[in-house]
Write a structure and sequence with these properties.
The complex is a heterotrimer. By secondary structure, chain B is α/β, with parallel strands linked by helices. Chain B is about 35% helix and about 30% strand. The two termini of chain B are about 15 Å apart. Chain C is built from 12 helices and 17 strands. In chain C, the strands form 4 sheets. In chain C, strands 1, 5, 6, 7, 8, 9, 10, 11, 12, 14 and 15 form an 11-stranded mixed sheet that branches. In chain C, strands 2-13 form a two-stranded antiparallel sheet. The chains are: A alpha+beta, B alpha/beta, C alpha+beta.
């Protein structure tokens, strides 16, 4: 036996009470982890400082003429440019089958997003060489059970296929893109722009937006000014921003997510802080006599303080650990149920926050009772007077 | 025989509300190494306060308290705690065992304060339990044991770190006659065979007979004749 | 029976009087319940407000025609020819000798959200001459309606409150052309209040979508005429691939799409937090029973039944959770009910709406609070009822 064993035994003195506390802490941490993971998935996409995006000044849903792309690609300070077009894709049915399908120019797209497109050469070549080929983020292929080499019918809720007369295109799955945390390709489905452009019934020769790399991040401001100036007063004015700014304004559209997360997680933690804090205080009060005995036996006040704090820490970290596990399960369930959108995995930052908050929770809930135990005088504790 | 404990001109006052109550006024006494002293007296005579002062769980207002030739009245809280762990074993009326721990774990508790290796600790616990005749109850929890058995565990806990002094506060106050006599017999054995110095506060004249001598305390003073002995 | 009631009354009074002894714990469980209820109400009021606004936008006797399978107006296409055919259908109301119909085109332009200073998608709708008349309850409150054929815009009051860039009197540049904002309209509780309106023909030409419509609205003579109009449309091959439905039905479908997510989040979070709050309530009530074990034992010796002890505990738990529920509802009313907010709606554009509590939502909150109280009191109550009439305990 040692102090840690003693803390553990103290914690489980009233098992029902401890289980209830662990359950409530677990839930608060599960909420924290799930919400932070979603927030992370939405907002923490890895960006390159040199990657910029040109889109229509009116709104990013307004298409730009193809000629814009050629002009941007030749601009001074632009290393390589590509273009993307929203396809409005889905598989079988909405909203479960929702797919962020982009019609891209494969070779330049692979240059602009090189770091997130590390796939086997034969898959890459298969994609480049077949106009009807598509690449799919690995979790998406997994979700729908697609195999490389299969032909997959993808529907568009915007465009009509001129060859078939309906809104379905068939694409050959050339390969899958691994999407580690923060990948810009999370959930992506890539198809050939040329094939798409030739077979669509309207909107030909227009593109959605133009991502490009500058030769140096220091040139970003100059390049973006030059591009937007170049198209000023034309019918298709542009707005050029670096990738991080674009992503931020995009997610801000959903509303003030960070505030909602803070409010909800804050409420959950205030609630458990109160519950755990008052219960710990009660637990130590109930043990007054035992604390007196420990001190009589020669346990120092500091050691008693550490043991009470250790107990509340143990409780907080036990709950945080279970909470992270529960979050893992909930996220896996959400990914399986699939309501559109790519699957979300447990964010490392969520774990870090959990650990920090658990530390704070353990300290806050344990501090008052620990000090109470620290200050407790033996003759008062034992009622020996 | 040398003195284990020496009290010189000890004063102790309490304030209860606005009233100041003097418990001891210039109390002087000595207890020899290997003695077994019963202290009797009516409620409020200062028995428990005396035990608190001897065990370092309360401090005197004035005067000197010496243990084994060293002053303990001027030690600070932390030093007193360490001194207590090394030198004093406590036995309470209501046993005060930890309900969540087994008998053996309760006995082991004071050894957490030492640097003994786990194996040596287990040996000491086994020896202490054997001395009080409870080796077969090692794995039982307090609520699975009778009052007498619990008090035996408490005694084992008090002697496991081999202190010189045992302080007993009404150790048989909650037990029936037969069990009480068994417990007192055990204390006698500890005093005689292991040479423990024992100071026992009791209300019970029968219990006091097990001690080598009895001191009567009244209003903070001992009967002079007894002290001289 | 009366005697049991008396017993319960007596035990409950003892319980309630002892609440201050567990003051902080009781406060903690009340606050935990209150926060749980507030979080539940937050999402339900959000979902309800969004849903009510979308639903409130549709009329019974206006038919809306969109391309089949298009989830939002943005993806729909209706051709000019189809438009003229549709105006010849049965039951189409006439105004000043013309069919009361409006072909419309929705494009998205950027506005700036006032609270965050970030760009946001604003719906910019080109409407026909009858567009305003087709929407009952729309009122120009400042300036005037746009003149057909000009680059003039009227702006919804809701949009103006949440977003900047389209203030009355301002001129803005879109696609190299200057547009003048000539009026502000109100359409309380509808999606239209978050829109910008301009002339359809000008919109089509300036946004480079010649002769393209996305939706068409037609005023029918009565709500009953919708069915006949639908049946008629099915018989004409030229209208193949179009979907006809009443405006109300169309918006009801949109409402469930946009609000279901928030409702789901609210229920999941609400239930999760309720389990946490329940743990707090159970702890408080177990402590209550433990603290009063001597008292309960004494009462049992005197002759009180176990039921009295059970119900006394139940009533205390219910009182705590009811207090928490009331506090949570109060918090919701004060903190966010009626507050205006906006989010991305089903049409991929910002939709301005208000948090809206309803009787049903408040009822759901009360039910949740009561469930927490019932479960939180039940198990500790059983423990109280099982307390034996032990003399030694009572004597302590």
């Amino acid at each position: 036996m040692n102090d840690r064993a003693l803390m553990w035994k103290n914690l489980w003195r009233k098992p029902v009470r401890t289980i209830l506390l662990v359950v409530s802490i677990t839930i608060a941490f599960a909420i924290l982890c799930v919400m932070l993971s979603f927030n992370d998935a939405i907002s923490n996409v890895r960006t390159l400082p040199t990657r910029m995006i040109t889109l229509s000044k009116i709104n990013f849903t307004e298409p730009l003429p193809m000629a814009h792309y050629d002009r941007i690609a030749r601009m001074e300070g632009v290393a390589v440019a590509t273009h993307m077009n929203w396809f409005g894709g889905y598989f079988q049915e909405m909203p479960r089958g929702f797919l962020p399908v982009f019609a891209v120019d494969p070779e330049t797209y692979f240059q602009v997003y090189a770091e997130d497109l590390q796939i086997p050469a034969e898959q890459r070549d298969a994609f480049f060489n077949d106009p009807t080929a598509m690449l799919v983020a690995a979790p998406v292929a997994e979700k729908f059970g697609w195999r490389v080499g299969q032909r997959i019918p993808i529907k568009s809720n915007i465009f009509t296929n001129s060859t078939s007369g309906d809104s379905t295109w068939e694409f050959m799955l050339a390969g899958t893109i691994p999407t580690p945390q923060g990948s810009s390709q999370t959930g992506s489905v890539l198809i050939h722009y040329d094939y798409f452009n030739e077979t669509r019934t309207f909107g030909r020769d227009r593109i959605g937006w133009v991502p490009f790399l500058t030769t140096s991040a220091e040139l970003n401001d100059r390049v973006s000014n030059a591009i937007d100036q170049r198209f000023a007063n034309s019918a298709d004015e542009t707005s050029t921003n670096d990738e991080a700014t674009f992503n931020k304004s995009f997610t801000a559209q959903l509303g003030n997510i960070a505030l909602v997360i803070t409010l909800v997680v804050g409420s959950a933690f205030i609630a458990i802080l109160l519950i755990v804090g008052t219960t710990m205080a009660l637990a130590v009060r109930e043990r007054t006599k035992e604390v007196g005995v420990m001190k009589t036996l020669g346990f120092s006040s500091g050691r008693v303080l550490r043991m009470v704090l250790g107990e509340s820490m143990l409780l907080a970290f036990l709950g945080a650990g279970f909470g992270a596990l529960l979050a893992l399960g909930l996220l896996a369930m959400a990914a399986g149920a699939g309501g559109g959108g790519p699957p979300v995995s447990l964010a490392p930052s969520a774990l870090l926050w959990s650990a920090l908050i658990a530390l704070g929770l353990g300290l806050l809930t344990g501090l008052a009772p620990a000090l109470q135990a620290y200050r407790m005088r033996i003759i008062d504790a034992l009622g020996r007077r | 025989m040398t003195d284990l404990i020496r009290l010189t001109d000890v004063e102790k006052n309490y304030t209860r509300g606005k009233e100041k109550i003097s418990i001891f006024d210039k109390l002087t006494m000595r207890i020899e190494q290997g003695d077994f002293v019963a202290i009797m007296g009516p409620s409020g005579s200062g028995k428990t306060t005396l035990l608190n002062l001897l065990g370092g769980t309360d401090k005197a207002d004035k005067g000197a308290i010496e243990f084994d030739g060293k002053r303990i009245d001027n030690l600070n809280e932390g030093q007193l705690t360490a001194w207590r762990a090394a030198n004093v074993g406590f036995i309470f009326q209501f046993y005060n065992l930890m309900p969540i721990l087994t008998a053996a774990q309760n006995v082991e508790l004071p050894l957490l304060l030492t640097k003994l290796a786990p194996k040596k600790r287990r040996e000491n616990v086994a020896t202490a339990l054997k001395i009080v005749g409870l080796e077969d109850r090692a794995k039982h929890r307090p609520r699975e044991m009778s009052g007498g058995q619990q008090q035996r565990v408490a005694i084992a806990r008090a002697i496991v770190s081999d202190p010189k002094l045992l302080l007993c506060d009404e150790p048989t106050g909650d037990l029936d006659r037969t069990t009480a006599d068994e417990i007192l017999g055990t204390l006698q054995v500890l005093n005689r065979d292991l040479g423990k110095t024992i100071i026992m506060v009791t209300h019970d004249a029968q219990a006091a007979k097990f001690a080598k001598r009895t001191l009567h305390l009244d209003k903070g003073r001992f009967e002079q004749a007894e002290l001289a002995a | 029976m009366a005697s049991l009631l008396n017993q319960i009354g007596a035990v409950t009074a003892l319980n309630v009087r002892s609440i201050p002894q567990r003051g902080w714990m009781s406060v903690a469980s009340v606050v935990a319940v209150a926060l749980t209820i507030a979080v539940l109400l937050f999402f339900l009021a959000l979902s309800n407000g969004l849903s009510q606004t979308v639903k409130g936008s549709g009329a019974d006797d206006v038919a809306i025609i969109i391309r089949e399978g298009s989830n939002a107006e943005l993806n729909s296409v209706v051709t000019r020819d189809q438009l003229s055919i549709l105006t010849t259908g049965p039951g189409v109301a006439q105004r000043q000798g013309r069919p009361s119909a409006s072909g419309e085109l929705l494009v998205i332009v950027d506005g700036v959200k006032r609270s965050t200073s970030t760009n946001a998608n604003m719906p910019f709708r080109g409407i026909g001459a009858e567009g305003l008349a087709l929407r009952r309850g729309v009122r120009i409150t400042e300036g005037r309606m746009f003149n057909p054929g000009t680059n003039e815009i009227v702006v919804g009051a809701g949009l103006l409150r949440e977003f900047s860039g389209f203030e009355f009197g301002k001129s803005i540049r879109l696609r190299g052309t200057t547009w003048q904002i000539v009026g502000v309209f109100e359409a309380p509780g509808t999606v239209f209040e978050s829109e910008l309106w301009a002339d359809i023909a000008v919109t089509q030409s300036l946004f480079n979508r010649p002769n393209v419509y996305q939706t068409m609205r037609i005023q029918l003579s009565s709500p009953d005429a919708v069915k006949a109009f639908q049946d008629w449309a099915k018989t004409d091959a030229r209208l193949n691939g179009l979907e006809v439905l009443s405006e109300r039905a169309y918006y009801a479908r949109q409402a469930s799409q946009s609000s279901a997510g928030f409702m789901f989040i609210g229920l999941v979070l609400g239930i999760m937090m309720a389990i946490g709050a329940l743990a707090g309530a159970l702890n408080t009530m177990y402590s209550s029973v433990a603290a009063r074990s001597a008292e309960i034992a004494t009462l049992r010796i005197i002759g009180f039944s176990g039921w009295a002890a059970f119900f006394g505990t139940m009533v205390e738990a219910l009182m705590l959770s009811a207090a928490g529920g009331a506090l949570g509802i109060l918090l919701a009313f004060v903190a966010f009910n009626g507050r205006t907010t906006s989010t991305l709606g089903a049409g991929f554009t910002q939709l301005v709406f208000q948090f809206q509590l309803s009787g049903g939502i408040v009822f759901a909150a009360i039910v949740m609070a009561i469930v927490i109280g019932l479960v939180g009191g039940f198990f500790p109550g059983i423990r109280a009822a099982r307390q034996r009439p032990q003399l030694e305990l009572a004597a302590q």
